[in-house]
């Protein structure tokens, strides 16, 4: 049902007007500091009034059988990736995992007190999600843990086979010179020869989307005024002895590259001396990385968005890779199409971080 259809359903069942329900939505959003959407406020109101907006499902499902607006959903899955827990408001918390079974993949979201389950999870765990509900987000089905939801971690004797698809997480190892526009996901081993300053931007602590500034305050399009957290992205040039390529790294991979915490990285916004030291320290560092190939149409160059890096690759590297020697590790010349130390608009996409942490992972699987 659409939002208006849901409003009409509640109004009809409780003998209220549509305007009454709309006013209740505004009051609920205001009482929660505008940290929820209209749809979220409506679901809380429906629960308070004893009206069900979900189809009740009592039997166990597979992931491919999930549809929007289900409640009491129970299914088994394997944790494929766990993401950083976010905080918002006064004590609010949310954590996401990406899971799969033999039929497909989905995202499971843990809110507030349900993050106690999230904190005990690790990648590779088998879980049974119990009494959850589903919703649609950008055309994808998500699972959310409600008040009555439970999560059983590694139930005894239960194993899960995960669906395989072509172009999955197994990325083909390639030399830079052999990468073509037809490549999607590749694995490379290369030396860092140039690092540019990170670009920081304000993001919503609830949904992680970029905030806009209005009259000196930061506002999320979905969640209203927010105290911002920070995301960040940087460019680096990589060389494997056959060619060079510009790589884009987002938050978690930047932390790995510099061996620093999120708080440490954010502190670099106002500590240029420490930032320069870190950039110098990683020059000449050999990394093994997996990433998604993009073509910069403006310059007709290949670029790679790195969503997994290993800063301590196995020392027994293939001799055929001919990585540059220390004498050959020189900064990329300024006349190359970097323009400046900031990420170009072609590469900088505010949706890329979510895309490459959750949604893009699902595409590649």
Task: Report on this structure.
The protein has 365 residues and is an alpha+beta fold. It folds into three domains: 47 residues, no CATH class; 99 residues, OB fold (Dihydrolipoamide Acetyltransferase, E2P), CATH 2.40.50; 193 residues, Nucleic acid-binding proteins (OB fold (Dihydrolipoamide Acetyltransferase, E2P)), CATH 2.40.50. The protein has eight helices and 19 strands. The strands form four sheets. Strands 3-5-6-8-7 form a five-stranded mixed barrel. The longest helix has 14 residues.
Main attributes of the structure:
single chain; 3 domains; 33% strand; 8 helices; alpha+beta; OB fold (Dihydrolipoamide Acetyltransferase, E2P); 365 residues; globular
Summarize the structure.
With about 375 residues, the protein is α+β, with helices and mostly antiparallel strands. Helices cover about 20% and strands about 35% of the residues.
In total, the number of domains comes to: 3
CATH superfamily of the largest domain: Nucleic acid-binding proteins
| CATH architecture term of the largest domain | Beta Barrel
Tell me the major beta sheet.
Answer: 5 strands, mixed, barrel
The CATH topology assignment of the largest domain is: OB fold (Dihydrolipoamide Acetyltransferase, E2P)
Principal-axes shape call = globular
Beta content comes to 25-35%
Helix tally equals 8
Low-confidence stretches: 317-321, 325-365
